[in-house]
Amino acid sequence: MQSTTEHFHRRKGALFAQSYACSQLAEDFGTPLFVYSRESLESSWQQFADALEGHEHLICYAVKANSNLAVLDVLARLGSGFDIVSGGELKRVLAAGGDPDKIVFSGVGKTRQELTEALEVGIRCFNVESEPELDRLAEIASALNVVAPVSLRINPDVDAQTHPYISTGLKENKFGVNMSDAVDIYKRAAQMPSLNVQGMDCHIGSQLTSIEPYKDALARLMSLIDQLDAEGIKLTHIDVGGGQGICYEDEQPLDIKQWAVCVIDAVGDRKLEILVEPGRFIAGPAGILLTRVEYIKQNEDKHFAIVDAAMNDLIRPALYSAWQAIEAVELTDTPAKEYDVVGPVCESADFLGKNRVLAIEQGDLLAVMSAGAYGFVMSSNYNTRGRAAEVMVSGDDAYVVREREEVESLFAGESLLP
Ligand SMILES: Cc1ncc(COP(=O)(O)O)c(C=O)c1O
């Protein structure tokens, strides 16, 4: 079971975030509270940099995984690029000091405004997902008198062997263009004067713990790249997407060295820069969610720990039946029982974990581990709950990187009828 890590570890039974006692963080900043470790973000990012060293590459952190400005800032300072999926994420990256020339723009539904803004800023590449998008991009670029750098997202029709909601590389998924249509679309794109065809990209799914799906996808993409080459269309980069899996329960995280060897081998002696878009692998292990037990409740022989975090703070368990480790922040000799850890939201899907053996009492603190990715970013205000505060621990300091949302701010834009 995934419990502590190098950055979230125990000292004499107490959970620490780097050098901070988590109980102190909860005391100082309240709960529910997302706590991020800067050093964890940096060391996961560095794994990609080390593994791809010696081959021309660009690591484009997938902003959607955790878009807090401080997270983006930490990565921008390492020289990271960014993979964005909206105009909002573009603005965040720029606000955090990200380099426009290292931004790739993914997503199936880019609006005119989003394409225009990204063209004006001069991003590194548009990961185009359909022919109508290609036409729209060409038209806007031409009107702005600029040339848009383009990659086509290919749907390689491989099974990523992950949860269906986070599997994206099958024919039935909405993402990318089919292999069989790709050559014709590339030929059309190459004829358009306002487009500069540069690359090919794919993203087959998330939380992949096996190399095989990457191997299958890359083999298909490389044969397509060779076909294009024979047609005189020379690509300069391959973007292999993200998806590298982490440990939530008992999974073996993807070995980034092995993954990089697989990518570099597949590229062979083709002159292609390697782009990669990891999100979860970098942000996931770098965060935990601290929550306090409000009540212990027993219905017949079922025990509930009712906590102050809920599905609006962390929706992964409700949305994907995702399992995340839940631990008592302080280990005590309270008798352990099996609990469903649930929130106060009025939905039966409002749980953080079921059947967890915990030694806890009312008022104790719990930590939901590996909560740095797809945690805060997917949170909502359901039940008029303000979103949690976010804190980043960096060296010996802890910084509030997002204040707790005040309830009044949740309806500030609403009005009564005259
Ligand atoms: C195009 C694209 N790139 C990268 C990612 C990041 O995936 P992960 O967080 O699994 O690395 C996603 C996630 O949905 C994506 O859609």
Give an account of the 3D structure:
By secondary structure, this protein is of the alpha/beta class. It folds into two domains: 8-37 and 284-410, Lyase, Ornithine Decarboxylase, Chain A, domain 1; 106-278, Alanine racemase (TIM Barrel), CATH 3.20.20. The chain has twelve helices and 21 strands. The chain has helices spanning 22-29, 38-52, 69-77, 87-95, 112-121, 131-144, 179-191, 212-230, 256-267, 280-283, 316-320, 407-410; strands at 8-11, 14-17, 20-21, 33-37, 57-62, 81-84, 103-105, 125-128, 148-155, 177-178, 195-201, 237-239, 273-276, 287-299, 302-307, 326-328, 337-342, 351-358, 365-368, 389-394, 397-402. Strands 4, 14, 15, 16, 17, 18, 19, 20 and 21 form a nine-stranded mixed beta sheet that branches. Strands 5-6-7-8-9-11-12-13 form an eight-stranded parallel barrel, surrounded by five helices. Strands 1-2-3 form a three-stranded antiparallel beta sheet. Strand 5 (57-62), helix 3 (69-77) and strand 6 form a beta-alpha-beta unit. Helix 2 runs parallel beside helix 9 (256-267), helix 5 (112-121) packs across helix 6 (131-144) and helix 8 (212-230) packs parallel to helix 9. The model has no long low-confidence stretch (mean pLDDT 95). Pyridoxal-5'-phosphate is lined by residues 62, 64-65, 83, 106, 203, 206, 241-244, 277-281, 373.
Helices and strands in order:
Elements: E1 8-11, E2 14-17, E3 20-21, H1 22-29, E4 33-37, H2 38-52, E5 57-62, H3 69-77, E6 81-84, H4 87-95, E7 103-105, H5 112-121, E8 125-128, H6 131-144, E9 148-155, E10 177-178, H7 179-191, E11 195-201, H8 212-230, E12 237-239, H9 256-267, E13 273-276, H10 280-283, E14 287-299, E15 302-307, H11 316-320, E16 326-328, E17 337-342, E18 351-358, E19 365-368, E20 389-394, E21 397-402, H12 407-410
Parallel strand pairs: 4-20, 5-6, 5-13, 6-7, 7-8, 8-9, 9-10, 9-11, 11-12, 12-13, 15-17
Antiparallel strand pairs: 1-2, 2-3, 4-14, 14-15, 14-19, 16-19, 17-18, 20-21
Helix pairs in contact: 2-9, 5-6, 7-8, 8-9
